[in-house]
Design goal:
By secondary structure, the protein is of the alpha/beta class. Helices cover 36% and strands 17% of the residues. The chain contains seven helices and five strands. Helix 1 links the parallel strand 1 and strand 2. Helix 1 packs parallel to helix 7. The longest helix has 21 residues. Flavin mononucleotide binds next to helix 1.
Length: 188
């Protein structure tokens, strides 16, 4: 039995996309993939006021959600956190009758200042899987399927790595829209 095609929503949150190298390249890759909806939060909400009803409708229309963002202070950018706080409401995303997101997949595509492999060593001390725990916990709280994360970054010669990052991201998104997105049971 071949899996049913899935609709995948990419929520991009980059505070300064005009200065971006990695996210800009990833975005270019995402545009190529059939069945993907791109939604640029900083572009949609330059004043920070989120249209909650529109965001909820958009979520309902998709099977998977990809959060794409540059890591800032070991976390997601502020507008994306604000999006969580505003959009994932009680009685809708969680709590009594809050089943809107149940069964949808959630995946993180993050970019970092240096090599993501360096996390967990050196100054940061924590792995990215550890740093993304609040996102994973939020997904699970809403009954979503946690699909894990991918991270893109390099200490040097970033431009030379961009095609590789773009190809990896494109393949992951294509797998999601094919319907073969497998929940991550243990990302410790
Ligand atoms: C305010 C701020 C905080 C940042 N904090 C981190 C961080 O905690 N960890 C990290 O790896 N990179 C950090 N960075 C670097 C960005 O993650 C990095 O420049 C970005 O992911 C590169 O992607 P881009 O080319 O799409 O901008 C930070 C950047 C800014 C502007």
């Amino acid at each position: 039995v071949s899996p049913t095609p899935s609709r995948t929503l990419v929520l991009l949150a980059h505070p300064r996309l005009s200065a971006s190298r990695i996210n800009a390249a990833l975005l270019g890759a995402a545009r190529d993939v059939e069945g993907i909806t791109l939604h640029d939060l900083y572009h949609a909400y330059p004043d920070g006021f989120i249209d909650v009803a529109a965001e909820q409708q958009r979520l309902l229309a998709h099977d998977n959600v990809v959060l794409q963002f540059p890591i800032q202070w070991y976390a997601m950018p502020a507008l994306l956190k604000h999006w969580f706080d505003e959009v994932l409401q009680a009685g809708w995303a969680y709590g009594q009758d809050g089943h809107a997101l149940r069964g949808k997949g959630l995946f993180v595509a993050a970019t970092s200042g240096g090599d993501p492999e360096g996390y967990g060593r050196h100054a940061a001390q924590f792995t990215l899987a550890e740093l993304f725990r609040p996102i994973e916990a939020s997904a699970r709280y809403c009954g979503m399927r946690w699909l894990g994360h991918a991270a893109y970054g390099a200490n040097e010669r970033i431009n030379a790595r961009l095609p590789e990052f773009a190809a990896d991201y494109r393949a992951r998104l294509a797998a999601f829209t094919r319907g073969d997105a497998h929940p991550e049971h243990d990302s410790r």
